[in-house]
Amino acid sequence: MPANRKYLSTSPLTKCNRLTAGLLGSFLASLAFHLALTAWLELDIVLTISIFSFFIVWIGLMLIAYWIRKVWQVWALILMITLVSLGAIYLAMPF
Amino acid sequence: MADKRDYNVFFDTHTVSGIVISTGLYMIFLAGAFALFMENINHWEANEPVRDAAAYIDYDGVLEHLEIMGYDMHGRTVRIRNDQGKIQVFSLPLTNKSLHSNPSAILSDSLAKGSIRLHLESQTFAEVKMIPVDRFKKLGGFLYGLHYFHPIPYGMELSGIVAAIFLFSIITGLIIHWKKIVSNFFTFRLKSTIKNLWADAHSALGIIGLPYQFMFALTGAFLGFHLIFLNPVATMYYGNSIHEVYKDVFPSFSNNKDFAPHGHSDEHVSVNSLVNNTLVEIGDRDISYMDVVVKNYKDENAHLGILYTLENNDGLLSNGEKGYRLTDGKKVFENEVGRTQTLLFGAILTIAKLHYASYGGYFVKIIYFLLALLTCFVIISGVMVWLKAREKNRIYASRRKFNANVGAIYLGICLGLYPAIALMFILTKTFPMEMRHRFDWISWLFLAFWVAYTIYAYFSKNHFHINRNALILAGGMGILVPVLNGFHSGLWFWKSLQMGYPDSFFVDVGWIVLGTATLISAYYAKPLNEKARKAKKGIPIMPEVETIK
């Protein structure tokens, strides 16, 4: 009944890397994404939705981090979301 | 699940995340189930009669009385509300020492500028000594604090993380059961192997409780861990102040620059008249709760915030808030039920109401209580699946002893909590109210019992005994609770309702029902020994059902 070890990664380094991407990386991506939404749309509306969706997006990205087979692809996705969001925030700022 | 790899990966993440949070989550759900009735338990403990909610409060009189008592009132933010027919006054210490001080102050300077925590009689303003003041030093409040790990540092944030990981476990669990969700729902192989019994219980009850658990994971994650999201938002869009965010949600409790003191001023509009204005605007709808906050009293920039909850006719959205400037009585902010309510105000209150079950009376609370117990069972059965799957598996042979130890400790912590809570109820009705450090003794004995039960479980390792003994202890003590309450306070459950003590009646009867049910299930609990069952009934053990086709 326990999951078949054949399909799981065995190297501790990969495991650790994936866990970091899943917990921390997806947290940062979710945070950057919601801050970018807040920068462009009306604050009250975005915050209202964010207090629910922030956690859902975080956990959803964590799932995707385990679903994608290669860890570097996970990091690429997370960095892409984060950087695009940061760019959007930069464009919206009045400086 | 199309792919064997995906299935196994999600299965493994479900197992690992579930095992990591299991005991913490069990604590959250069991303590939380009791904490739903926090107010009732507090009243039961203190033998308080029916609440007098409609008592009239003379707010101006209270504020003047505080000045007469010698407190330095200038620039104070004072919160006044009705607490069981008494007036509860609360204020933080003054931070700005340069403000004009009260010339008639008879208290020493540090006391006059210090915090205020008082209970006053509603007519005479005579001080009422109410012990204990700390909300976590009452039984209901303690269970509520335990529910989000309040006794340990950063407990609230930790419970928020546990809730977020719980969300992950729920979704991975749903993914691995997705294909067989319908057939699993109708499968309960009671007569098959023990492993199948636990697995069926885990998936069928998990699916039944899924919407409820999802709601709690999400609202719990927000309530415990919201600062990790709101702090960056405040830094970026609110000028680095979380108080600016609070101003958008609850202006009455905000401390932002709009509410900074300007300078001393004696003239102000009567608080009573503004409260009356609010009552007139609310009209004929009944109010179940009202909180009045006076900000910067005796200042040019004095404000008044009024928060109210309507009587439960409007379901989820029944909270409102109004704010006035005290110099001229102008209305400055308003969150009126169903009309000018801001979205964020409504959303956060919705989260709170869903989480605390405060929207539908006792019926909803009892359903929440039962569903919380069901979730506790899902957690325990998950741990049992984890243990049983490893007990006879050759791959885990080298770690068999370690797994057995972990399993025994987990079961000890989880199952020991229920009798420990029952013991707390007994101790509150054994120790006299006047005893010094009464609640410290109670909470330390609670912890000692809980730790002792875990140690017993570690040495016993017999799952059946750990479970049955916990049930017998909890059931026995639960039945004793109303008896001890009767001897302690004279409020026997057959007459407390007529005498006007509904909370006393409710908690006593609740424990009779709960204790009886616990003892009955302890009586019917039988050791789930595979060989014994097989030999006795002659049932062949079913072949293992392949999970992946």
Describe this structure in words.
The complex is a heterodimer of chains A (95) and B (549). Chain A is mainly α and 95 residues long. Chain A is built from three helices and no strands. The N and C termini of chain A lie far apart (58 Å). Chain B is 56% helix and 8% strand. Chain B has 19 helices and seven strands. Chain B has a seven-stranded antiparallel sheet with strand order 3-2-1-4-5-6-7, with helices on both faces. In chain B, β4 and β5 form a beta hairpin. Chain B is globular, with a radius of gyration of 27 Å. The interface between A and B is large, with 33 and 43 residues.
What is the element layout, followed by pairings?
The complex is a heterodimer of chains A (95) and B (549).
Chain A: H1 12-40, H2 43-67, H3 71-92
Chain B: H1 4-35, H2 38-46, H3 59-68, E1 78-83, E2 86-91, H4 109-112, E3 116-120, H5 139-147, H6 155-177, H7 181-185, H8 194-208, H9 210-225, H10 227-237, H11 242-249, H12 271-282, E4 287-295, E5 303-310, E6 319-325, E7 331-335, H13 343-356, H14 361-391, H15 400-428, H16 438-460, H17 463-489, H18 502-524, H19 530-537
Antiparallel strand pairs in B: 1-2, 1-4, 2-3, 4-5, 5-6, 6-7
Helix pairs in contact in B: 1-5, 1-6, 1-14, 1-15, 2-5, 2-18, 6-9, 8-14, 9-13, 10-11, 14-15, 15-16, 15-17, 16-17, 17-18
